[in-house]
Amino acid sequence: MKDVQETCRIAVIQAEPVMFDKAGGLKKALRCIRNAAAEEAELIVFPELFIPGYPIGMNFGFSMGKRTEAGRADWKRYYDASLIAGGEEFKQLSDAARDAKAYVSMGFSERDAVNGTLYNSNVIFSPDGSWSVHRKLKPTGTERVVWGDANKDYFPVVETPWGPIGSLICWESYMPLARVALYQKGITIYISPNTNDNPEWQATIRHIAIEGKCYFVNCDMVVRKSSYPEDLETIDDIKDQPDMVCRGGSCIIDPYGHAMMSPVWDEETILYADLDMSLPAACKMEHDAVGHYSRPDVLELIVHE
């Protein structure tokens, strides 16, 4: 591993998205970036699909072999609120990262610039204005009726003063080989934008931090029943949801599997921490899953980038 900067000041944004609203979501994201920059954050992390929000509980009129026109109208509304990588909203986010002198990780619904498919994506903006996009390999469950499988941008990493960083989105972290694909690139910070507010997930994130000997950044969002626009065509999908649809639970786990702070539930907040970047290397003394504690002569992962 290359020498790295000793500490990383990180801000984990647990916030409520502005659902189905591209302009509103962008405005809120820019405000959060400015707030985190005021606290001297060097790495700022947002949840999965922060723009234009994760529509938990909606089915967009899909049933086995059938669709509805009301659901199609809501899907098109969500499509219109999604971002094109490199578009005007991207440029504003890139400028915000440059102004903040920070790396910014943002979950967003991506509109392909050529075809009509949406992708569940995450972008990392660098302080020099560049960016790197990762598309979710396999949308989970009925996410597949909204977003397509990644067709590129599988396992990008970004070189930072703290070593390579990368992301896997939500249940991608349950794909063992996907995790190893990141470990093989030497990541020191594993970013996980997600909507997993279940207790079992808290066990998963500790395991991954220990397995990869990296910091695990667990970034979830808060979604309330009141988050949804009242004029959705399929608003009845939401009526049986609890008042707090997604409770958050954001936190950071160190490479020993220890929580740097307790998960935060049911509120918007920004979590700040100073990461000791000596730990990812120091922890590998006894266990390096892709180094001395591996058997490449017996087990081999082939990644088709």
CATH architecture: 4-Layer Sandwich
What is the CATH homology-level superfamily? Carbon-nitrogen hydrolase
Q: List the uncertain runs.
A: none
Structural class: alpha/beta
- Which CATH class applies here? Alpha Beta
User: Overall mean pLDDT score?
Assistant: 97
How would you characterize this protein structure?
- The chain is α/β, with parallel strands linked by helices and 305 residues long.
- The protein has a single domain, classed as Carbon-nitrogen hydrolase (Nitrilase/N-carbamoyl-D-aminoacid amidohydrolase), CATH 3.60.110.10.
- It is built from six helices and 13 strands.
- Strands 6, 7, 8, 9, 10, 11 and 12 form a seven-stranded mixed beta sheet that branches. The chain has a six-stranded mixed beta sheet with strand order 5-4-3-2-1-13.
- The longest helix has 17 residues, at 22-38.
- The protein is globular.
